[in-house]
Write a structure and sequence with these properties.
Protein name: Peptidyl-tRNA hydrolase ArfB
InterPro entries: Pep_chain_release_fac_I, Pep_chain_release_fac_I_sf
Strand content: 15-25%
Catalytic activity: an N-acyl-L-alpha-aminoacyl-tRNA + H2O = an N-acyl-L-amino acid + a tRNA + H(+)
Helix content: 25-40%
Number of domains: 1
GO molecular function: peptidyl-tRNA hydrolase activity; ribosome binding; translation release factor activity
Number of helices: 3
Distance between the termini: 91 Å
Order of helices and strands: EEEEHEHH
CATH architecture: 2-Layer Sandwich
Keywords: Coiled coil, Cytoplasm, Hydrolase, Translation regulation
Largest sheet: 3 strands, antiparallel
Strand order of the largest sheet: 3-4-5
Length: about 140
């Protein structure tokens, strides 16, 4: 059972975890031990609330396929258990990131003082450039 929030949980049967061989150097056990983990989670078939499903499907992340399947590969640790925990934690973070509602940006206006300073700077720059003209003799 993966607990996302107080009201939302994902059952174990919804998450498919398979063992694979990790990439990269591994010493003597590199070709014997399958310690990496592939986690697959189908968004459409899950028991998540509809709001969560909609937000996950609309969320742009390379780990979410067009069909709505989340694939996470965890191989940072040398043990299978730690890689499983890492994959589950990353799934939880992905779901929470997709569901988080961004605060609407309220556009700000420049202050009167900043507007006045800008115009004064422009006029000063114009006067300086006017002095660069040809000298009349």
């Amino acid at each position: 059972m993966l607990k996302i929030s107080n009201a939302v949980e994902i059952a174990d049967w919804e998450i498919e975890i398979t063992q694979i061989r990790a990439q990269g150097p591994g010493g003597q056990n590199v070709n014997k031990v399958a310690s990496a983990v592939h986690l697959r989670f189908d968004i459409q078939r899950s028991s998540l609330p509809p709001f969560y499903k909609e937000r996950l499907m609309a969320f742009s992340d390379q780990r979410i396929s067009k069909e709505g399947i989340v694939i996470i590969k965890a191989q940072s640790s040398r043990t299978l258990e730690l890689n499983k925990e890492d994959a589950l934690e990353r799934l939880k973070e992905l779901i929470l990131e997709a569901v988080k509602i961004q605060k609407a940006r309220r556009p700000t206006r420049p202050t009167k003082g900043s507007q006045r300073r800008r115009v004064d700077k422009k006029t000063q720059k114009g006067k300086t450039k006017a002095l660069r003209g040809k000298v009349k003799i």
